[in-house]
Design goal:
By secondary structure, the protein is mainly beta. The chain contains no helices and eleven strands.
């Protein structure tokens, strides 16, 4: 069992939204989550399944090219940004959308040892925010 943090309630006009933010997610967070609202008019519940993915590192050969992708499922087009904990200046990215699946593509050219690190894709839209991290390892062929 996971102890859930408190939720926040956002209200505007006649619309009320409950937001549950999960930080430092581990495999223990996998499961079904239910949000229940109760007022004088009755009760309503909504359920969501949460999966946790453990990213595998991307291994790339020195001075070659690597393409990192980040896939988002959303009814609306998200704003996607890439960041890195390296000193590398990230190139511009492309976003390909088809059937509510939006794929952001980051291509790194002529990779050197400075590219070793963690690359984070952040997707934001009116439904919330999603982050995906990719670890890049660079090896020098013998």
């Amino acid at each position: 069992n996971v102890t859930l943090p408190s939720t926040s309630l956002v209200s505007s006009s006649d619309i009320h939204t409950s937001i549950l933010t999960l930080d430092q997610v581990t495999l223990e967070y996998i499961g079904e989550y239910t949000c229940t609202a109760v007022n004088e008019g009755g009760e309503m519940s909504d359920m969501i399944n949460v999966n946790v993915y453990v990213p595998l590192p991307v291994n790339v050969s020195y001075n070659s090219q690597v393409t990192l992708t980040c896939e988002v499922q959303s009814l609306t087009t998200p704003n996607v940004t890439w960041t890195s904990n390296t000193d590398v200046t990230l190139p511009s990215t492309s976003l390909v959308s088809s059937n509510y699946i939006h794929t952001s593509i980051l291509t790194l050219e002529q990779v050197t040892l400075e590219y070793i690190g963690e690359y984070t894709c952040t997707a934001v839209n009116e439904g919330g925010e999603m982050r995906d991290m990719i670890n890049v390892n660079v090896y020098v062929p013998l």
